[in-house]
Design brief:
heterodimer, A: about 110 residues, 6-stranded mixed sheet, 11 strands, about 0% helix, B: mainly beta, 7-stranded mixed sheet, about 50% strand
């Protein structure tokens, strides 16, 4: 079965710095990978999707890379703000059709003033 | 666009009772919806895939007779937790795919706000 690891349980950074979150996976080569944001007590909110043939994707202050050789995705938030504080989840398709996702445990990001 | 709602947002029930949770896609038609469960400090675990007009597909280890799923229309899926017990207390979240892409891609899942279930 697919195993997904996200680096550290919590990441504290200073406002204005770039936050970098890591997602590593094993056992399978997904066709795409997604990043979501989850606030406490709320459902995840979709941020970005990157496909296996894409190296990098950007959206405003967000950037995602996808290295299928290393089986790793990096998620960057530039010019971070306290409002970016949340848990960030990576999710991979489980294969076999049906667009089912397997989620990582998430990285909690806290941006401090 | 691509908004998903859930009702109720929070429910407390007695052990042995049944609880129904509704998941609605508000501005798109969803032929496929997904139900997840999330325990504190843990990630989302897929419970089942709900397909409009057909039986749900359950993940390994999920009891289909305990977690009844009905997807009667293109905008509504329901999850009924039957004979709930304290160990069923969790955060239940649904998601839906917008086949048209909804400004994103067809693979993107749009999540509801979740339902907090507490069984006493």
């Amino acid at each position: 079965s697919q195993k997904i690891e996200q680096n550290s349980e919590a990441l504290n950074i200073q406002e204005g710095k770039t936050a970098t979150l890591t997602c590593n996976y094993t056992n399978y080569s997904p066709a795409y990978l997604q990043w979501y944001r989850q606030d406490p007590g709320r459902g995840p909110v979709f941020l970005l999707l990157i496909r296996e043939n894409e190296k990098e994707k950007r959206k405003e202050r967000l950037k995602v890379t996808f290295d299928t050789t290393l089986k790793q995705s990096l998620f960057h938030i530039t010019a971070s703000q306290p409002a970016d504080s949340a848990t960030y989840l990576c999710a991979l398709d489980m294969g076999g059709g049906g667009n089912k996702l397997t989620f990582g445990t998430g990285t909690q990001l806290k941006v401090e003033l | 666009g691509a908004v998903v709602s859930q009702h109720p947002s929070r429910v407390i029930c007695k052990s042995g009772t049944s609880v129904k949770i509704e998941c609605r896609s508000l501005d798109f038609q969803a032929t496929t919806m997904f139900w997840y469960r999330q325990f504190p400090k843990q990630s989302l675990m897929l419970m089942a895939t709900s397909n409009e007009g057909s039986k749900a597909t359950y993940e390994q280890g999920v009891e289909k007779d305990k977690f009844l799923i009905n997807h009667a229309s293109l905008t509504l899926s329901t999850l009924t937790v039957t004979s709930a017990h304290p160990e069923d207390s969790s955060f239940y979240i649904c998601s839906a795919r917008d086949p048209s892409g909804g400004g994103g891609s067809q693979e993107t899942q749009y999540f509801g706000p979740g339902t907090r279930l507490l069984v006493l």
